[in-house]
Design brief:
The complex is a heterodimer of chains A (350) and B (297). Helices cover 75% and strands 0% of the residues of chain A. Chain A has helices at 5-33, 39-44, 50-60, 66-78, 96-131, 136-149, 153-169, 174-178, 181-193, 209-215, 217-243, 246-253, 258-295, 301-310, 314-342. In chain A, helix 12 (246-253) packs across helix 13, helix 13 packs antiparallel against helix 15 and helix 14 (301-310) runs antiparallel to helix 15. Chain B is mainly alpha-helical and 297 residues long. In chain B, helix 4 packs across helix 10, helix 7 runs antiparallel to helix 10 and helix 10 packs parallel to helix 11 (247-254). Chain B starts with 19 loop residues before the first helix and ends in a 6-residue tail after the last helix. Classes of the chains: A mainly alpha (350), B mainly alpha (297). At the A-B interface, helix 1, helix 6, helix 7, helix 11 and helix 13 of A face helix 6, helix 10 and helix 12 of B.
Chain lengths: 350, 297
């Protein structure tokens, strides 16, 4: 059978992605098998009788061979049954699926909202910075992005929250009173320009759409600040790399405008690296989301996972890890496929 | 030639080879301001971390009567949620947070570099096995993986160090293997093998010195990454456990103060940010001056 070379490479990559997902699911599954032997006893506490311990071990499935357990586990996962949380008690069963579902929606909401803001912003900034390289605009953007790259997410998050709060409190601080009056007034005025975004994102399933957007503004802004920097720098580098090739000189010599040269000649060839870095950063969102959700008390999967880790509720941790890891693997897979499809040169590695 | 003086009078004396110390001095003299700033900051942090008990005004876990006290002469940055002096906690925090991150990075380098170079030297099934294992480990985001492993092993400092070192050594392994592959094919390595040197000797004396520079730069970057990961985990409450002073958990414990417009919780977060910025500056300069790499323009 003869296959189009693009299709063949894409199929190979898909196969590799499936294998990765399979191995990842095995690792996450074996997490429960690695639990210390007395785990059932430790969870049940003082009141544990041999019968209840055996019942819990049966519930987790520790009394069956691992291969059998794995296939029944992954089969249930595929049907959307993630098992039940350790927090469930007799007569009151809490399934992991019903805990995760609403939170997954919230996390996706936050991630999509951030991506919609951050990706066009980063690409735009990168293209402009490449067009006017070494101008003051380029320098300012470069310095700012280099600094935000090295900040921890929770620092950026609390800085933003602090800015919002000091709208109301700034005038009363000793610091403001020690400043000259005109300066204090103008700082206060500047602070008041910023809309009063809520610093705690309390959301439930009844929250209307635009209200949800409004409450998710600060978490989303934090994530945007964290990921824009990297994407923008890579876009700029990729375009500059293209701009040094002879065919760009040719286009310039033909007398084309710089904007046209960048958009029509440099950008199409720079797509592959840009798409890769965009996907990488969207995958990074998954990690960033955990910390930011905790800072703003946003009810998403990240916060759920952290709470589950603290209470050592392993089925919930497993389900969250599986969701995160699968998204991560899929995003990387999509990035690779797009960069294969947009760049015929990748098809002939030598 | 009509000139009165001959163009060359004497042959110049061969230039004396610079000693390592003088080369370092020359490199330092050319360092940009950002690198100097970075080195200064790192030095300050190191001094504070090493001499914490001498610098700190109180003991690490000494509790005073007033919780969340405002800034005063007695408590420079006020007190925390249990009434412990904030400045003292910050100083001891430098010791705990940086110390743990440093040990973790060293461990991850020891494992990553050794395995990476072994894979590069022997290729074959060892290389395949290690590389595929690393591929799998890297296909799960490391913070998520760390959270999962910590939920199993519980969050003690030992398990924290081991888990992060394991996850981070994958990146080191990739780099060490990649740069190692370029060196193992060199003639001098072959000569050493023919001479009958053992693999450990070849690794240490022939390969390691030739890949040291990229590894040192990577050490700085990995340290930043490990430091931020540990801070994030502690912030989430599953990293370094109380009563040890630690910057990440200090931010979380005092975060409520922010809602009253108090900057105190931003201090430990700022301390983390400042150190990462400083290390990045130094690594940036180091990469530029050692590899001759210039910016794209």
């Amino acid at each position: 059978m003869r296959l189009n070379p693009v299709a063949k490479t894409v199929l190979q990559r898909l196969g590799l992605g499936l294998i990765t997902l399979f191995v990842v699911s095995i690792i996450i599954f074996s997490a429960i098998a690695m639990l210390p032997g007395d785990f059932a006893k430790a969870t049940l506490g003082q009141s544990a009788t041999p019968e209840t311990v055996a019942a819990l071990q049966h519930e987790i499935g520790l009394d069956r061979p691992p291969v059998e357990r794995y296939f029944s586990w992954i089969g249930k996962m595929a049907k959307g049954d993630f098992g039940s949380s350790f927090a469930s008690r007799t007569g009151y069963r809490r399934t992991v699926a019903e805990i995760i579902a609403p939170r997954l929606y919230n996390t996706m909401f936050l991630a999509v909202m951030t991506a919609l803001i951050a990706v066009p912003l980063a690409l735009g900034l990168g293209i402009v910075a490449a067009l006017y390289r070494n101008s003051w605009f380029d320098r300012v953007v470069n310095t700012v992005t280099l600094t935000t790259i090295s900040f921890p997410e929770f620092f950026v998050a609390y800085m933003l929250a602090f800015l919002i709060i000091s709208r109301d409190t700034f005038a009363g601080t000793e610091f403001a009173q020690s400043l000259p009056v005109w300066l204090a007034i103008s700082i206060n005025w500047t602070l008041n320009v910023v809309p009063k975004f809520p610093t705690l994102a309390n959301i439930n399933d009844q929250t209307p759409f635009w209200d949800h957007v409004w409450r998710a503004a600060l978490p989303s802004a934090t994530l945007t600040l964290v990921i824009v920097a990297h994407m923008m720098r890579m876009t700029r580098a990729a375009i500059l790399n293209m701009l040094s090739s002879p065919y760009i000189d040719m286009a310039r010599l033909k007398g084309m405008r710089p904007m046209v040269v960048v958009l029509r000649h440099a950008l199409p060839n720079a797509w592959a690296p840009i798409v890769t870095v965009v996907a990488f950063n969207l995958a990074y969102l998954i990690v960033g989301v955990v910390v930011v959700e905790v800072v703003f008390v946003y009810p998403g999967v990240g916060q759920l996972m952290v709470d589950a880790v603290r209470s050592r509720d392993v089925p919930v941790v497993q389900a969250c890890a599986l969701v995160f890891a699968a998204t991560y693997v899929l995003l990387n897979l999509i990035a690779d496929i797009i960069s294969i499809a947009t760049n015929p040169r990748l098809l002939h590695p030598r | 030639m009509t000139s009165a003086e001959p163009v060359i009078q004497t042959t110049r004396a061969p230039r004396v080879r610079r000693t390592r110390r003088s080369r370092i001095r020359i490199a330092l003299k050319k360092a940009p301001l950002s690198a100097w700033f970075g080195m200064g900051v790192i030095l300050c942090y190191a001094v504070v971390a090493l001499f914490a008990p001498l610098i700190a005004p109180y003991r690490e876990t000494q509790v005073f009567s007033e919780a969340f006290a405002p800034w005063s002469h007695e408590f420079a940055f006020g007190t925390d949620q249990l009434g412990r002096d904030m400045l003292t906690r910050l100083i001891y925090g430098a010791r705990n947070t940086i110390g743990i991150a440093f040990i973790t990075t060293i461990l991850s380098f020891a494992a990553g570099v050794t395995l990476g170079l072994l894979a590069a030297m022997y290729r074959g099934w060892l290389d395949q096995l290690l590389s595929r294992a690393v591929d799998v480990l890297m296909s799960i985001p490391s913070l998520i993986f760390a959270l999962m492993l910590l939920s199993i092993f519980g969050s003690s400092i030992t398990s924290l160090i081991l888990v992060i070192a394991l996850l981070d050594s994958t990146r080191v392994f990739r780099l060490a293997r990649a740069v190692g592959l370029n060196v193992v094919v060199m003639e001098y390595v072959e000569v050493a093998q023919l001479r009958g040197e053992g693999p450990a000797w070849i690794l240490r004396k022939e390969i390691l010195p030739n890949i040291l520079l990229p590894l040192i730069a990577e050490f700085g970057l990995r340290f930043c990454f490990v430091f931020l990961t540990i801070a994030a985990l502690s912030f989430l409450g599953v990293g370094i456990q109380p009563p040890s002073a630690d910057w990440g958990s200090m931010v979380r414990e005092n975060a409520t103060l922010i809602t009253y417009g108090d900057v105190t919780p931003l201090l430990p977060a700022g301390a983390i940010a400042l150190l990462t910025v400083a290390v990045n500056f130094v690594v940036d300069w180091f990469l530029h001056s050692t590899s001759g790499l210039r910016d794209e323009n």
